């Protein structure tokens, strides 16, 4: 049985990690949990209540795998130190190491071979991880020239605090709605830039000098890196993203337009997507079947559908829609799949 540690165990991703380890029957003893302070307990189904210890490098020394569900600053300070004392690998969920040349950025169904022998492995940004499940098979079958992504991102992307702010904001927002649909009275926001109930906010992470947000640039850089290109180089597909927060709880949705190298009939694309691991095709417009956050929430697979020939790019263009659970494919599930590859 492997020995596993979870750092940041009391956060939204940390808690999901325990559930995924259990559901996938990951062969490990009760995971050791670490947080910024000890004295807390986290409930787990299989292992019962687990105590959370204050983190120390000595505390994780000799474990097979350590999952980091902590901040980027934490990863910058400790990831290398932890990697030096674990037997197999550290899987980091933060953005701190993703573009480091010596750290593979992995979605196991796409580039899982990079896990073997790597001491430090980065989990992609959730938005990228969900999109790449559909983009990678299209890239392999038809090549990709251009990718334009518009996101509809759930509150869970901002962690447990984001989910709490959305839930707690709904009743006060309802009380502010007048009969004519306008609002009176102020709603407040702390986690998000603006109140999320009954709103969409085209602002996730910090604005950059080029007018994009950091979240949007992560999609550009990380998609290129996972597909095997220099994340900031000119080779490989051009990728542009507009990232928008919407009032859903934990599944991100993304409208994706691609221009491919080779002609890509929509029917052929659907065949490719049907065969791709980790994807469930939901594409039957006649039966109102398409991806939605409501059905993607809690599921391991990413849903893909609304696949159609793009009327701008013609035979070399497609439009599609994906939905994936942000906490699972975008974080905990991907991290556990990475560990499984690294240990195999
Ligand atoms: C978000 N992608 O949705 C970010 C979280 N990693 O806010």
From TrEMBL:
Active-site feature positions: 126 (acyl-thioester intermediate), 252 (proton acceptor)
GO function terms (MF aspect): NAD binding; oxidoreductase activity, acting on the aldehyde or oxo group of donors, NAD or NADP as acceptor; protein dimerization activity
Any one Gene Ontology BP term: alpha-amino acid biosynthetic process
SMART domains in UniProt: Semialdhyde_dh
InterPro entries attached to this UniProt entry: NAD(P)-bd_dom_sf (IPR036291), Semialdehyde_DH_NAD-bd (IPR000534), Semialdhyde_DH_dimer_dom (IPR012280)
Family according to the record: Belongs to the aspartate-semialdehyde dehydrogenase family.
Start and end residues of each Semialdehyde dehydrogenase NAD-binding domain: 3-118
Pfam families cross-referenced by the UniProt entry: Semialdhyde_dh (PF01118), Semialdhyde_dhC (PF02774)
UniProt name for this protein: Semialdehyde dehydrogenase NAD-binding domain-containing protein
